[in-house]
Design a protein that fits this description.
Layout lengths: L16 H33 L6 H18 L9 H18 L3 H8 L10 H9 L3 H49 L5 H23 L8 H20 L6
Helix pairs in contact: 1-6, 1-7, 2-3, 2-6, 3-6, 6-7, 6-8, 7-8
Length: 244
């Protein structure tokens, strides 16, 4: 039987803490960009198929409702004393850096006016293509601001996940001790699947809320996913092996 010869020049490259952190950050940015792109596509599709009469008012109304939720129901937060101002500042900064610093707004102002009679050059050509898509471009800008507000809301909601997970961890460890001293059986199958489900639940909560094509109170998204996240933490802790 032939033995497998290992090449001594091969090295197992292990990622360090900085590499893992950068990789995790890159994946987070990737998911955020995909959620933003999906939100814009859904809004454009809705303007053509589902709410053609509303047009730009749909995205504008969603933006005002999301800020209204903060004004009425989120007066305090662990992260900031004024959640509404925090969300508005995030939205304003996003608009400033994405559309004003890049001179995208100036380009729109330059292209929007109808060309003069006999005018030649690049502007008449750009105006020709921009005019039928103007509402979609403005809707994209408003959805980007809405995305920023929702992102700020999710950041403000992260202490809820932390609190729920701490309570679930304590309860799970108590259940583990009861199982340990009572001679109960342990299941590595349940442990590994509960452990793997924790982080995707947080990601799914962010992606779901950021990509919603309609306004929904953040409580109806944050609390269910925080509860499921806490359940996965509790099951992971309670099914952890008896002896270390």
């Amino acid at each position: 039987m032939a033995e497998t010869v290992t090449d001594p020049r091969r090295r197992v490259v292990q990622e360090g803490l900085i590499a893992k952190s950068l990789g995790a950050l890159a994946r987070i940015i990737q998911w955020l960009l995909l959620s933003l792109l999906f939100s814009i596509i859904i809004e454009w599709a809705g303007m053509l198929l589902w709410w053609p009469d509303e047009g730009l008012e749909h995205s504008r109304a969603m933006l005002s409702r999301e800020i209204g939720y903060l004004d009425t129901d989120f007066r305090r937060s662990v992260i900031t004393s004024d959640p509404a101002r925090f969300a508005k500042r995030v939205a304003d900064n996003t608009y400033h850096y994405l559309f004003e610093v890049t001179r995208f707004v100036d380009l729109i102002h330059w292209v929007t006016p109808a060309p003069l009679q006999g005018e030649t050059g690049l502007r008449p050509t750009l105006h020709k293509y921009y005019r039928p898509t103007a509402e979609f471009v403005i809707a994209m800008m408003q959805i980007t601001q809405l995305f920023s507000v929702r992102l700020a809301i999710l950041i403000l909601a992260m202490p809820v996940f932390l609190l729920f997970s701490l309570l679930a961890l304590v309860d799970g460890l108590v259940q583990r001790d009861l199982r340990r001293w009572g001679g109960g059986r342990e299941s590595s199958f349940v442990y590994h699947y509960a452990k793997k489900a924790a982080l995707p639940l947080v990601v799914l909560a962010w992606v779901t809320y950021l990509a919603l094509p309609f306004s929904l109170h953040p409580t109806f998204v944050v609390l269910p996913f925080a509860t499921l996240f806490a359940l996965s933490v509790a099951v992971t802790a309670s099914t952890f092996k008896k002896y270390l």
